[in-house]
Design a protein that fits this description.
The protein is of the alpha/beta class. Helix content is 40%, strand content 23%. The radius of gyration is 18 Å and the shape is globular.
Length: 226
Amino acid sequence: MRILVIEDDSVLSEAISHRIKNIGHGVDLALTGKQARLMLRQQNYDLILLDLNLPDAHGASILQSLRESKTTSPVLIITAIDQVEERIKLLDLGADDYITKPFDFGELEARIRAILRRSQGQAQETIEFANVSLNLRTCSVEVDNQAVELKQREFRLLEIFMTQPKQVLSKDVLMDHIYGFDEAPGPNVIEIYVARLRKTLAHSALHIRTIRGLGYLLEEQSGASE
């Protein structure tokens, strides 16, 4: 998924970014409110991690602007404030969850997974399509209950397909979900990842079909190959 981290502490923001990239998501960083507002005008995000104490803005004002503009991207607040009244205010403004500093990165990853599941309409950590099962917590994939190995980018690409089955997804949409602004993948990188997925899942009932000039579509087609 594509995630925006709005955090003015450069050490903490880089650490968060590193953890998010390690689990295969695209991530952008904003150190100020001005940078954050610019990025939010240019890109839609699957999740926003928002620090409250920015050098040029209060995170609550950014959250309020997002909800007033009808932006529905889920927001996870990062705060050092541990007061019930403040947390209630943020939730009423439209925050989806919060985590207080200092926090454990394992807990942060768990909260990210939970929010993304809810935003995708997934109550469980496991997504199933045809005879393929994908576990969001363990980042593992099984075909007919047999484990198969995927690299992180391939896993996230499969996650996008499996959460939007039978929909045509363009290369640009797929790129936007797994790469950030500061990354410059080659023009054929999606084709490479799709080819790897097809090869790895060749014996499954899952098929990624090319729609010429438009993108790719996930369907169930036993024995299909391309």
